[in-house]
C-alpha cells in the first residue's frame, strides 16, 4: 500500500503538533481553588470570599474558597509546596506568617520567595496602640514618657509571640530606647478587653479594639498605616510620630512555583478587577482593611524584602517556635 503524500504527511504533523494546544484550551476551563488558611467568619475570610466570587465572574469559572485552618495559618502554603500542580487551579493566601515561618523553625519548610508564584498583593489590617481612656496616658508622647520613667512597667498585649504586632513593638521600643513588657494573648479581642479592665496598660494589635474605642472605653494613640485612618482620623501615624514605619501585615495570593506567565497574568487581572470592585472595597471598609495592591513583580519584590526583615528580627530576638 503506498505511503502518504508529502502534503498529507505535513498535514498530519501539523494536526499532531496542534493537538496539545487544543487539548489545553483557554485558562481556566474548570473551577479554581483558593485556600483560605483560617476558619470561616474572620476578616481575611470575608475579604477573600468576596474576591473569589468577583474574580470568578471575570474568569468565567468559579473560584471556590476552601477553608483549611490550622498550623498557624500555613496549611495553604503547605499544600502549594507539597501537593499542588503549577497549573493555576490551586491558589492560597500568602501572608506574613508564611514568609516568617522559615526563620522560626530549625528545618525551614519552604523558601518564601523561590517556592511560590506570587500573583497579587491585596490588603492588610489597621494596627494601632490603644490605652485605657481614663488612664494617665493620653498620647504617644505620654506613652514614651511613662516607659522611660518606669522601665519595664509599661505592659502591652498582642495576639502572640513573633506576630507582626510583636515585632513592630520590639522595633519601636528599640528606636525609642525604652523597655516595655510584652504580654501575649491568644485572641485580639481578649487583649483589648484586658486593657479596658486594667489588667494590661496597652494593646498593640489589629482593630479588634475598634468597638471599645468607639464606645469610649479605650483611647487610640497611634495607627500603623501609611495614612491616617478614615475611621479614626484623630490618631497620628507612626510616620507622623517620627518613625518611617508602616505595619499593616499585608497579604496576597500565591500559587505553586513554576506557573505559566500567561496564566499568572489572567489570574492577576481577574483578582485585580475584583479587588478594586466596589463590593470588595465595602468588605475592606467594614474591617478597616487598607489597600495594599501589588502586581506580580512588585509583590515578589515585597516578599523578598519582608523575608530579609523577618530573618533579621528572628535572629536579633532569638525567636524559635520549635
TrEMBL record:
Task: Tell me the first and last residues of the signal peptide.
Answer: 1-23
- Could you list this entry's UniProt keywords, alphabetically sorted: Signal
Q: Which InterPro entries match?
A: BUG (IPR005064), Bug_dom1 (IPR042100)
Sections of the chain in a coiled coil: none
Family annotation (PANTHER family): BLR1237 PROTEIN, TRICARBOXYLATE-BINDING PROTEIN
Its family? Answer: Belongs to the UPF0065 (bug) family.
Q: What is this protein called?
A: Tripartite tricarboxylate transporter substrate binding protein
Amino acid at each position: 500500500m503506498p505511503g502518504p503524500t508529502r502534503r498529507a504527511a505535513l498535514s498530519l504533523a501539523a494536526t499532531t503538533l496542534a493537538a496539545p494546544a487544543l487539548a489545553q484550551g483557554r485558562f481556566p476551563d474548570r473551577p479554581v481553588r483558593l485556600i483560605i488558611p483560617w476558619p470561616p467568619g474572620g476578616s481575611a475570610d470575608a475579604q477573600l470570599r468576596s474576591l473569589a466570587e468577583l474574580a470568578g465572574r471575570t474568569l468565567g469559572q468559579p473560584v471556590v474558597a476552601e477553608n483549611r485552618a490550622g498550623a498557624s495559618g500555613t496549611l495553604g502554603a503547605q499544600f502549594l509546596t507539597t501537593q499542588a500542580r503549577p497549573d493555576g487551579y490551586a491558589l492560597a493566601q500568602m501572608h506574613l506568617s508564611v514568609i516568617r515561618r522559615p526563620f522560626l523553625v530549625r528545618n525551614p519548610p519552604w523558601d518564601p520567595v523561590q517556592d511560590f508564584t506570587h500573583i497579587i498583593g491585596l490588603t492588610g489590617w489597621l494596627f494601632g496602640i490603644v490605652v485605657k481612656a481614663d488612664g494617665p496616658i493620653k498620647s504617644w508622647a505620654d506613652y514614651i514618657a511613662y516607659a522611660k520613667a518606669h522601665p519595664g512597667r509599661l505592659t502591652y498585649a498582642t495576639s502572640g509571640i513573633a506576630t507582626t504586632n510583636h515585632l513592630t513593638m520590639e522595633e519601636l521600643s528599640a528606636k525609642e530606647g525604652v523597655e516595655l513588657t510584652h504580654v501575649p494573648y491568644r485572641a485580639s479581642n481578649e487583649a483589648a478587653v484586658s486593657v479596658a479592665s486594667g489588667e494590661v496598660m496597652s494593646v498593640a494589635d489589629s482593630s479588634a479594639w475598634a468597638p471599645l474605642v468607639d464606645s469610649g472605653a479605650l483611647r487610640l494613640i497611634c495607627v500603623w498605616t501609611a495614612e491616617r485612618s478614615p475611621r479614626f482620623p484623630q490618631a497620628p501615624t507612626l510616620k507622623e510620630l517620627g518613625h518611617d514605619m508602616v505595619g499593616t501585615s499585608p497579604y496576597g495570593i500565591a500559587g505553586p512555583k513554576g506557573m505559566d506567565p500567561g496564566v499568572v497574568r489572567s489570574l492577576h487581572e481577574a483578582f485585580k478587577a475584583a479587588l478594586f470592585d466596589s463590593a470588595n472595597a465595602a468588605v475592606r471598609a467594614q474591617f478597616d482593611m487598607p489597600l495594599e495592591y501589588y502586581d506580580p513583580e512588585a509583590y515578589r519584590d515585597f516578599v523578598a524584602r519582608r523575608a530579609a526583615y523577618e530573618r533579621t528580627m528572628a535572629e536579633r530576638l532569638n525567636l524559635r517556635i520549635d
